[in-house]
Structure formats: structure tokens, C-alpha cells
């Protein structure tokens, strides 16, 4: 009963903070982490601790899967150079840089153990950064790099952590490290791609969208657990499966299945992402109380954490500066969307740490010297980067002068896309083979009705791209408003008919679904100009 009550209160807090965050213009993860810290130090508050295995095996896979299915594969391919530099090179340099620092600070800590903690505090968590960036209108490419980095760098860090822990038990050569890394990456990606294709094949043949969505909840674990069992990267396996699913789902799944999956996974992702930040704050008391003062007291451990944070930020600035400088070198095909120095500053300051850092730190072997202090150092890095960098990121974005695509251009681009797909659809309307789809010779009135519906959608998008603020609604905007009002009255009539009785529950449910789908279509159409919200 106690756990159920905590879960209910947690959801209430998450929803309340998420409603408050836009009003105070602070990212919800920041508020939740600070709120969790405040709650943890209240008198009488019992210690909160969740085993690292629960986070790494139970929470991380669905979080990664939810992010990867919504990241277009084209975005990953077009930014593979930047993402690789941040997710692999930066992680390795950060792990060794902070590892040598900790090796110097702790006289009884061997280098392998120090690098293990360096690997723990190296991966970034882009949740706070991207939520701030989307609100402030960062360029889509910069957001894609941040999201891609956070998907892949967890794998680099966890593989490096596993190798460093193995090195604490005996000598490990450089070739063994490279071999282990290559094995983990190649096998992890290969297994994830296979799982992605297999599950898409199965789900495409399940007609019920509820059942298809239920299968999707198994996919991240089906990709993660076998990969970890054979020593491959479970993280990369999940990411690969998610990317394949998101890419193929656009043509393999039915529209209701896509709607169901999108809504359910967005809800699941929302609760998990925000829940882990609240949990990070709540665990403060447990982590601090676990430090044994006879070896290194809490203030000293926090000080070492602050030093490690400074080193991590410095290394990130250096690597990002080198990356953007290389990107500006002359090339045969110039890239107009190349990340420049201004974007580099924002990217450098977006290195907030998150749940993987805290969970991975708690997975350090019990026999490592100063283990409790190392966990507190990792926690300090996560909280300081999250709160300090996260809170100041909006100011850095404004000072750097980084702006995304203007709203007018977003509307124009949307209208161009709608025009393009309408024209392709119109070509099909003139195809005599279309009669086979309609079950016989087509009534010209049917063709005209379909043509008008497509034209109305295209006209609406074009009106939005040319409309000026302050003007009254254009014709198709009025259509959407009036049609939505009619739907509300039709829904009221449906509810009244349900209350009176006389109709079967099946008929009522089908009518409700039909109204919902049309209303969702109208709401989506009217929100087309808000791309980038």
C-alpha cells in the first residue's frame, strides 16, 4: 500500500510540475530534481534507494527506445560525424581525463577504478537540454545532434565502464579493450537491427492497434536483455531496434496503430523521464548517509565532484571547438546547416548528466576503494550539471544568438510539403487503375469529393504560411473551427444517446472512435503551423 501511494503521489507531482514549468520558464527535470532534494532532507523522510540494476535494465531500455523511435533515421545519418565525435571520442577523452584527476586525488585508488568512475560521469542526458532548446527554438540540426549524442554515448560509457571494471581484476591490453569495444558495438547494433525488423514484421500482421502497441512495450527489453547476456551493448541494440521501428513503421503499421503507439509511448516516456529526475533528488539522503567519514568526508567528496565537473565542462568545450573547426574546413560540397561557433557554445554548455550517471555509479563493485565517495562524486556531477548548466542554458542560448528556423519559414515549409503530397495524390486520382481500389467504375462525384478534401488541406496550409498575425481566420481555418464545433455537438448527441440507451455498446464505441479520429485530424491540421513547439 505504501509503494502504491508513493507512485500515485509521484505521478501527481510530475504532472503538477510539468504544468508549472512553462509558466516559470524552467525545464521540468530541473524543478523535479531540486524538489526531490528538498523532499529527501525533510525530517522523518525515509531513505530512498533504487537498485542500479532496476534503472539500467528496467528503466533505461524503454527510455532509449521511446527516444529512438521518434528520431528520424535521416537525421542520424546526416549528423553521424558530429554524433560520433560527441558520443565516442568525447566520452573516451572525458573518462580518461577525469579518471587521471581522480587517480591523482585518491592515493589508494588504482587507475582502472578511477577510469571506471570517469566512464560513469561521461555520458550526457539530453532531456533537459532538448526541452529547453525546443522551447527556445533551437535549430533542428542542433537538437538532432543532442538527441543522437544522448542515445549513443550511454553505450560508449557503459562498455568503457565494463572494460575498466574488468581491468581492476587483472591486466587488460589495449587490443583487448579495442576488441571488446568492437564486439560490443557490432553485435549490439546487428542484434538490434534484427529485432527491429522482426518485431515490425510481426506487428504489421496484428490488426488490433491495442495488441500491436502492447507488443511494442516488449521490444526494448527483447533488444536489451539478449545483447547484455552475450556481452554486447544492450543500449545500442535498443537504439538500433527503435530507429528501425520508427523508420519502417511509417509504411508498415496502420494509422490507428501509429496513433496508439505514439500516444502511449509519449505518456510512458513522459512519466519515466520525469520520474527518474525526481528519483535522483530523492536519493540524496541515502547517498550522503552511505559515505564513511573515516576515509573521506562528505564536503571533500563534493569538492572532488565539483573539480570533476569543471574538468568535464572544459574537455567538452575543447572537443566541441575542435569538432566545429574541422567542420568549417573547405570541402567539395558545402553544408549550409553546418554547426558554427555559436552553436558550438550552446552544444558545449548542454552537457548535463542524468540517471545513467547515478545508476552506473551505484553498479561499481563493492571492493573498489572509496566506493561510497565515488558514488557521491558521480551524484554531485549529475546534480550540478543538471541544475547549474540547465538553469543557465537559456541565458547562454540568448547570449550566443542561436536561433532556429523562423516561424514564417516553418509555415511555408509545411505548406510546400502539403502541396507536394497533394500533387502526388492528384496524380493517382487520374490513374484508371484506381477503379480497382474503389471496387468498380468510379462515380465522378467521388473523385471530386476526394480532390476537394485534399485541396482543402493544402489550401489551409498555404493560408497559414501567408497569414499575418492579428487578421481574422481564413476560409479553411473557419472550416476547421466550424467543423470542430459541429463535432462537439455531434459528440453531445452521442453522449445523450448513450445515456438514453437503445444502442449497442459496439455501435457507440465505433461512433466515438470515428468522431475522435476526425477531431484529431482537425486538431493536427490546425497545429501544423506550430511545428517546432
From TrEMBL:
One Gene Ontology cellular component: plasma membrane
UniProt keyword Transmembrane helix, yes or no: yes
Keyword NAD: no
One Pfam family it belongs to: Na_H_Exchanger
Signal sequence residues: none
Transmembrane segments: 51-71, 83-105, 181-202, 209-227, 233-251, 302-326, 376-401
Superkingdom of source: Bacteria
Domain called Cation/H+ exchanger transmembrane: residue spans: 14-396
Record-given protein name: Sodium/proton antiporter, CPA1 family
Subcellular location: Cell membrane
InterPro entries linked: Cation/H_exchanger_CPA1, Cation/H_exchanger_TM
The species this protein was found in: Agreia bicolorata
An individual GO BP term: regulation of intracellular pH
Amino acid at each position: 500500500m505504501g509503494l502504491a501511494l508513493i507512485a500515485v503521489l509521484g505521478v501527481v507531482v510530475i504532472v503538477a510540475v510539468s504544468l508549472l514549468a512553462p509558466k516559470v520558464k524552467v525545464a521540468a527535470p530541473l524543478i523535479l530534481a531540486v524538489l526531490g532534494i528538498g523532499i529527501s532532507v525533510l525530517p522523518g523522510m525515509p531513505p530512498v534507494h533504487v537498485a542500479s540494476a532496476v534503472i539500467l535494465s528496467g528503466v533505461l531500455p524503454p527510455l532509449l527506445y521511446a527516444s529512438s523511435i521518434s528520431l528520424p533515421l535521416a537525421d542520424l545519418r546526416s549528423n553521424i560525424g558530429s554524433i560520433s565525435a560527441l558520443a565516442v571520442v568525447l566520452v573516451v577523452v572525458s573518462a580518461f581525463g577525469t579518471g587521471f584527476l581522480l587517480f591523482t586525488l585518491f592515493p589508494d585508488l588504482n587507475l582502472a577504478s578511477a577510469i571506471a568512475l570517469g566512464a560513469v560521469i561521461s555520458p550526457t542526458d539530453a532531456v533537459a537540454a532538448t526541452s529547453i532548446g525546443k522551447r527556445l527554438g533551437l535549430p533542428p540540426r542542433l537538437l538532432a545532434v543532442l538527441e543522437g549524442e544522448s542515445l549513443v554515448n550511454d553505450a560508449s560509457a557503459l562498455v568503457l565502464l565494463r572494460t575498466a571494471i574488468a581491468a581492476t581484476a587483472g591486466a587488460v591490453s589495449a587490443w583487448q579493450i579495442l576488441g571488446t569495444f568492437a564486439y560490443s558495438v557490432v553485435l549490439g547494433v546487428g542484434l538490434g537491427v534484427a529485432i527491429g525488423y522482426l518485431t515490425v514484421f510481426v506487428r504489421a500482421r496484428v490488426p488490433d492497434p491495442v495488441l500491436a502497441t502492447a507488443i511494442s512495450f516488449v521490444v526494448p527489453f527483447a533488444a536489451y536483455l539478449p545483447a547484455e547476456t552475450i556481452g554486447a551493448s544492450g543500449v545500442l541494440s535498443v537504439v538500433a531496434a527503435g530507429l528501425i521501428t520508427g523508420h519502417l513503421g511509417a509504411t508498415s503499421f496502420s494509422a490507428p496503430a501509429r496513433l496508439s503507439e505514439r500516444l502511449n509511448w509519449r505518456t510512458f516516456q513522459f512519466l519515466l523521464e520525469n520520474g527518474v529526475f525526481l528519483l535522483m533528488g530523492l536519493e540524496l539522503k541515502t547517498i550522503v548517509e552511505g559515505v564513511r567519514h573515516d576515509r573521506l568526508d562528505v564536503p571533500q567528496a563534493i569538492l572532488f565532484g565539483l573539480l570533476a565537473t569543471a574538468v568535464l565542462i572544459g574537455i567538452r568545450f575543447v572537443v566541441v571547438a575542435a569538432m566545429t573547426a574541422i567542420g568549417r574546413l573547405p570541402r567539395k560540397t558545402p553544408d549550409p546547416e553546418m554547426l558554427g561557433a555559436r552553436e558550438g557554445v550552446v552544444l558545449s554548455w548542454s552537457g548535463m548528466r542524468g540517471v545513467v550517471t547515478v545508476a552506473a555509479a551505484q553498479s561499481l563493485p563493492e571492493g573498489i576503494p572509496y566506493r561510497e565517495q565515488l558514488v557521491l562524486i558521480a551524484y554531485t556531477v549529475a546534480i550540478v550539471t543538471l541544475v547549474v548548466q540547465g538553469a543557465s542554458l537559456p541565458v547562454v542560448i540568448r547570449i550566443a544568438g542561436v536561433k532556429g528556423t523562423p516561424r514564417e519559414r516553418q509555415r511555408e515549409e509545411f505548406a510546400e510539403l502539403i502541396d507536394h503530397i497533394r500533387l502526388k495524390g492528384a496524380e493517382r486520382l487520374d490513374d484508371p487503375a484506381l477503379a480497382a481500389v474503389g471496387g468498380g467504375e468510379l462515380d465522378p462525384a467521388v473523385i471530386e469529393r476526394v480532390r476537394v478534401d485534399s485541396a482543402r488541406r493544402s489550401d489551409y496550409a498555404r493560408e497559414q504560411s501567408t497569414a499575418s498575425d492579428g487578421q481574422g481566420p481564413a476560409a479553411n481555418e473557419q472550416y476547421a473551427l466550424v467543423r470542430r464545433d459541429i463535432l462537439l455537438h455531434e459528440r453531445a448527441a452521442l453522449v445523450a444517446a448513450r445515456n438514453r440507451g437503445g444502442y449497442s455498446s459496439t455501435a457507440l464505441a465505433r461512433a466515438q472512435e470515428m468522431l475522435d479520429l476526425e477531431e484529431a485530424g482537425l486538431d493536427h491540421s490546425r497545429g501544423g503551423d506550430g511545428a517546432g513547439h
